[in-house]
Amino acid sequence: MTTALSDAVASEIRGHLNEVCAQIGVDPESASLVKYTMNAVFVAPPFVIRLAAGPHAATLARRVVSVAASLEQVGMPTVRLASGVTSQPVFSGDWVATAWQYVPTANDEPMPVDLAAPLRALHSLDGLDVPLPRWSPIEKFRRRLDAAAALPPKEAGELEQWSRTELGIPVADLLRDLHLRCDEVEEDLDRVVWRLPPGVIHGDAHTGNILLPAPGDGAAARPEPLLCDLDGMCIGPREWDLVPTAHGATRFGRSAADYRNFVDAYGADITKWAGWPILRRVRELQLVTSTIDALAGRPDVAHELAHRLRSLFSEDLKATWRRYR
Length: 325
Known about the structure:
Pfam family, one: APH
InterPro entries: Aminoglycoside_PTrfase, Kinase-like_dom_sf
CATH superfamily of the largest domain: Aminoglycoside phosphotransferase (APH), C-terminal lobe
GO molecular function, one term: transferase activity
Protein name: Phosphotransferase enzyme family protein
Strand content: 5-15%
Order of helices and strands: HEEEHEEHHHHEEEEHHHH
Number of helices: 10
Keywords: Transferase
Shape: globular
């Protein structure tokens, strides 16, 4: 496992994984956890299994299954649902899973430029033959904050201790501050004059959500990159899908040259647009609220979130953030 988890959390997730594997005919002993941010992602050849919990997990999983099937029908460069798994999503108690075809990947690390062609393809769509929600990022942030405020006593106590130790403030003050930031940026978003027409967007288009398939034996051409993690698919401003690459160059240590290669390939530089500072703030709120209600038993995620929040509160725009593992 590359993700550090407490024994209790690891045991809980493994139990649900075992039940899901039994339902889809996969050996759970072959499964390895590769990532756990909002979903626990396991490679379990020939599939990848994504496990999630929470009050909205089942609804989201059902929508993602429909969206993935629709994207496949129109030939989009996206990951495919697991062949042979006839009924999805798959349930284990209050957890829900989706199963995907495992894609052997190249050894090369995905770069921002690898996002350009898949995003251009996706952005050619005005809609799909399944309903997509409207882009509403602040609503998601508030939902996470509300969930953090309503945690069970044990998890709430751990969050309180973490907030006081790492940030020097009670959780109530932390959540109040983040709610105020949500209010402020929501007002700013209402004043944004968008340059591009709305359409189908990925919603979280960073290099961690792109796969570089390994070339087949004797293949001369490199296979096209594939977009994965379709949870954020919606109808919204196409500019939003350009934010993570720009933000990666300003927050996650990506080079200016890497970003320029993406700009040249996609054909737009969002940092030259008047709306960029607002969308950067939205992105940063997204990245400090996405795990705030699920820190228990995840020390690495908790440590990184504290670092992000300290730099956000001190308005330190030069502090480098690390991706969650």
